[in-house]
Specification:
Layout: H1 16-24, E1 32-35, H2 42-51, E2 55-60, H3 63-72, H4 74-78, E3 82-86, H5 92-95, E4 104-110, H6 115-119, H7 145-151, H8 154-163, H9 171-183, H10 189-200, H11 211-221, H12 224-236, E5 239-249, H13 252-263, E6 269-271, H14 281-286, E7 294-300
Parallel strand pairs: 1-2, 1-4, 2-3, 4-5
Antiparallel strand pairs: 5-7, 6-7
Helix pairs in contact: 8-11, 9-10, 12-13
This protein binds S-adenosylmethionine.
S-adenosylmethionine (SAM) binds at residues 11, 13, 36-37, 39-43, 59-62, 65, 88-89, 110, 112-114, 137, 227.
């Protein structure tokens, strides 16, 4: 079964007008922009369209994203208008170059995976495409989803699915994993999604039963929540006075981390709005991947 909205499509930047509106509020204007999650550069290019020939410094931990940037934006890279660094956005060695003094007027984190990552079967992010059970955003890292599924003990797997997948009763699936892998290790996304379909069945028509299991594995393979927690204060320190950091999240665990950080960092600045900003109905129609997006905004204040 393949829901209509999962067909391959180019990566459309999520919440474009809301992001531009928030950046227009930066009092000094935007002339140097930090894009922590470059992807295919959709948001970065949109910001350049709005603010003119500005400078963009970006990170992406995916080698394909960096290779794409190097080929598609080679002119801008040569002119030193764009720099895309192959790095996780929490890498202190990279960030410290921009902290003292802070150089950016604004920054963006558009968390999670990109459409090309989801659509490329070989990356193993999606249960709709059969591919290796991989899920590494950074292909140079060692740990894969298959390593976790084939080697972790039952308790650790249950804890992972409970905490990161928010699955109340993962034990039946975990028992089946432990049982099946003794016969044959899990190799493909289909091996795992097939087992989950068999054991858990389809409870909700709109949600594949493997969705939360795959999310939990992806979060663990890439240490996404830990990286986010670590990075937020350090990214803020790269912003000038009254600069803004915009963070787009796609599930509740990420949003909770962002909200707690923004509410609790008065020494770095202020959370601009108590409520999250959500995509409009119109956007949901043209870009189904925006459906769970939430945008939060933080303003850096330096005494
Ligand atoms: C949702 S996509 C971004 C799409 C981009 N805004 C665009 O419009 O093209 C997320 C990208 O960020 C990268 N990414 C996710 N977490 C990251 C992290 N912690 N550090 C660096 N890159 C990360 C992923 O590899 C992916 O390419």
């Amino acid at each position: 079964m393949k829901p209509k909205d999962i067909v391959k499509q180019p990566h459309l930047p999520v919440m474009p007008s809301e992001i531009i509106n928030e950046l227009r509020e930066v009092t000094r204007g935007v002339s140097h922009f930090f894009d922590g999650t470059f992807g295919r550069g959709g948001h970065s290019m949109m910001v350049r369209d709005e603010f003119g020939d500005i400078k963009v410094t970006a990170t992406d931990r995916d080698l394909d994203a960096v290779a794409f940037a190097n080929s598609k934006f080679s002119d801008l890279i040569e002119q030193k208008k764009i720099r895309v660094i192959h790095s996780v956005f929490s890498n202190q060695e990279v960030l410290s170059e921009f902290q003292e003094p802070p150089v950016f007027d604004a920054g963006l984190l558009d968390l999670g995976v990109s459409s090309p990552q989801l659509d490329e079967a070989g990356r193993g992010f999606s249960f709709y495409n059969s591919g290796p059970l991989d899920m590494r955003m950074d292909q140079s890292q060692e740990l894969t989803a298959a390593d976790i599924v084939n080697t972790w003990d039952a308790q650790d797997l249950s804890d992972l699915f409970y905490q990161y997948g928010e699955i109340k009763f993962p034990n039946k699936v975990v028992r089946a994993i432990i049982n099946d892998r003794e016969e044959k290790p899990f190799v493909t996304t289909e091996d795992l999604s097939g087992l989950i379909e068999r054991v858990d069945g389809w409870r909700k028509k709109s949600k594949h039963p493997a969705t939360s299991y795959f999310l939990a594995l992806r979060l663990m393979v890439n240490k996404e929540l830990e990286v986010l927690k670590e990075a937020l204060p350090e990214i803020i320190k790269m912003l000038k006075h009254e600069g803004r950091l915009l963070v787009l999240t796609f599930h509740s665990l990420e949003d909770r981390i962002v909200k707690q950080f923004m509410k609790g960092a008065p020494e770095l600045g202020r959370m601009v709005y108590k409520k999250v900003i959500k995509p409009t109905e119109e956007e949901l129609k043209i870009n189904p991947r925006s459906r769970s997006a939430k945008l939060r905004v933080f303003e850096r204040l330096i005494d």
